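Following up on my earlier message about pyridoxal-5'-phosphate. Here are the inputs again, as you asked, copied directly from the submission form:
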Amino acid sequence: PVYLDYNATTPVDSRVLEAMLPWFSEHFGNAASRTHLYGWTAEEAVATARKQVAKLLKTNLKEVVFTSGATEANNLAIKGVFEKYSYKGKHIVTVATEHKAVLDTCHHCEQLGGEVTYLRPDTNGLITPQQVAEALRSDTILVSVMYANNEIGVIQPIREIAAATHAGGALFHTDATQAAGKLPIDMAEEGIDLLSLSAHKFYGPKGVGALAVRQGVELTAQLDGGGHERGRRSGTLNVPGIVGLGKACELAQKEMNAEAERLCRLRDRLEQEILANVPHTFVNGKASQRLAHLTNICFEHIDGENLLLSLKDIAVSTGSACTSASVLPSYVLKILGLTDDQAYASLRFSLGRFTTEEEIECTIQHVIETVERMRVGSAV
Ligand code: PLP
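Thanks, got it. Here's what our run produced:
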């Protein structure tokens, strides 16, 4: 089988695994144990990882809070700001095509008396800084806009959106789960106050991530207890996971440019060959600036479920893995204007570090033959 679902998750890079291994049994100390060498050693490893994350985001290392992943980071950012700043206002602005980890957290705030504006993007998934500016009110405390979309890869104009947010006196959060480690990010320069990321999307382990918080931004903790992470997230730190996240950041920083170039070439070939050889296809979000390693292609007049089943040797997805338990068509694609049938018949191909040219050639052939076979006998 060919794995082209890197946006769902990535394998742990062997260099990351190697860095993690000593931290399970050999150096097993609790990073919060301040009275002996076991604790100090673990604390040092966590400090190194914190520097590696901070370096990737060009931020201050005091600003990194380790979490169990991006879902938790998004919850901490949104609920944490909502609780802390509700004395100023209870209005949040976000986008209808955000990940459920943002949307459902916003719904939670609504149940607590918050008001949320869900901006609608254009047919390519983009929103504009003007839309944000127009949505801001005197009681807006937070704007949350994802850096790059997990389904179609569209990259939002983050710097301009952050500037519009600040002009309105609110804080700016971005769910950068699909962008961190893939795109160069400079939190300070781009004006990002809070940023969520997850290790398993860029060759680190699952179940670990971080929320980077600009100095001066306050948050109400969502996990109370021993006061870890400067009181922002209690719970004994997952030292091997955090070491893995740090290593993944270090590797990404060194390799992201060359990797993006290579993957863009492969992605373009895959996309062009499919579009040229399979009639009735189009790319979702193509006209926007988008991630280099991903294409989301609609195969019109084809039953999406059958297509996925027929392509079972190629691991791709419809919608996002996180909501695949539901049989509903992708809400992201529907917001772009696709019909239910078009959304069901759209496949996301996401490439990654270990994708080879041969795999792409094999995928091209397989997709062309499969769709041709499925269309035989049908009118289109
Ligand atoms: N945000 C986005 C944009 C994602 O793509 C994902 C994962 O699919 C998440 C958040 C959730 O991340 P995690 O799996 O670390 O909880």
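One observation from looking it over: The first strand starts at residue 2 and ends at 3. Hope that helps, and feel free to reply on this thread.
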